[in-house]
Amino acid sequence: MKTLLRSTDTLGILEAAKIIKYGGLVAFPTETVYGLGADARNEAAVNRIYAVKGRPADNPLILHIHDMAQFYAYADAPEYFELLAKAFWPGPLTVVVPKKSTTPGWGTADLPTIAIRMPSNESSRLLAKHAQTAIYAPSANLSGKPSPTSAHHVLQDLDGKIEIVLDGGHCIYGLESTVLDISDSMPRILRPGFITAEMIHEQIGILPESGHPQSKQPKSPGVKYKHYAPNAELTVVNGSPASAAAFINEHASIAGKRIGVLATDQTVEMYDLNKYSVLNIGDRLKPELIGAGLYAALRKFDDLGVEVIYAEGIIGTGIGAAVMNRMAKAAGGRVVNL
User: Got the DSSP string for 121-143?
Assistant: First the structure.
């Protein structure tokens, strides 16, 4: 199969929408990461997403919609959902809600709930509008790898496996959406993102809990399995800039191994560029910028053939919580707290 690359102009979107209608797979940009989309009404097309990505069957997908009519065709929601939708949609918030009895099990891992969002990226909404269907779409990468934030990243993983990639440039946020479960009595953030618990509290007057109950089947992607991981073994080091750099310099000299260091503005000059492949992820006081460049940096280390990566952690509050969640997932839990 030849994977087409098209721009997000009207002709490109119409071509991609036609492919969606005929059961094909389309990679498209959102404000968070690139998604791999299929017609939500087409069981075979949705199942093909799982096959192409190598995604476990019990890992639900997110339904992308272009208007509220599509939301209510698939789901029910508590009254305060309208407050969330008014404040954060279109935008990087996914809600987990009870699905209608008429909503099929594919794409939801046969759960009684469904995860839905309305992206703020206009081309992604236009794709759903012209395809005349809601679109199931996880990130457009091989399962477990860093999510793609450019069309080039998508092609690295999926070239020849899907019909078309819409190139909308780099994603502005670079981290997946916040996932908020509002299907139970107490709202709960299952996956942190750029919409924070404090922002949600301001709208609904309830501070959501965080984390997924270990005893239940995950209602959200990005919870159960290892995600976002580069080829190299990654270790996250939490501490002050000076202490993190000192630890990394002490422990990173591994005989015969090519070492990568994910540094910040505050520490980049503390590393020997002749010893390590050093990438500066930005100002640790601006987590939104670090989040926007994180996956691209991890993929760059793959391109460089790095075998071991040390990454400096940042303060894990607000948007920083989303950045640290992705770093810890990418590291498979290898986190050093100084």
Answer: -HHHHHHHHHHTS-EE--BSS-T
CATH of domain 4-210: 3.90.870.10
Read off the tokens for 31.
């404000």
For residues 309 and 174, give the distance between their C-alpha atoms in angstroms, rounded to a whole number.
20
Q: Does the pLDDT value for residue 255 go beyond 70?
A: no
Beta-strand (E) ranges in 67-140?
Answer: 93-98, 113-117, 135-136
Q: Strand 233-238: give its sheet, edge to edge.
A: 277-280, 259-263, 308-312, 233-238, 335-337
Q: Tokens in use for 87?
A: 């404040």
Tell which CATH classification among 3.40.50.11030, 3.40.1190.10, 3.40.50.620, 3.30.230.10 matches the domain 233-337: 3.40.50.11030
**Residue 313: both structure tokens together:** 């952690």
Identify which of 99, 124, 128 has the alpha carbon closest to the alpha carbon of residue 40: 128
Cβ-based burial of 60 (10 A; exposed 0-12, middle 13-18, buried ≥19):
buried
Bridge partners for 335 per DSSP: 236
pTM: 0.95
When pLDDT is cut at 50, 70 and 90, the band that residue 105 belongs to is very high
Q: CA 188, CA 179: separation in Å to the nearest integer?
A: 8
CA distance 328 to 331: 5
Separation of alpha carbons 31 and 91, rounded Å: 8
Q: What angle do CA 41, 43, 98 make, to 5 degrees?
A: 65
Domain boundaries, the chain: 4-210, 233-337
Give me the helix-helix angle, 122-131 and 10-21, nearest 10°: 50
Q: What are phi and psi of 295, to 5 degrees?
A: -65, -35
pLDDT > 70? residue 295: yes
- Residue 290 and residue 174: Cα distance in Å, rounded? 9
User: pLDDT by residue (tens digit) across 53-69?
Assistant: 999 999 999 999 999 99
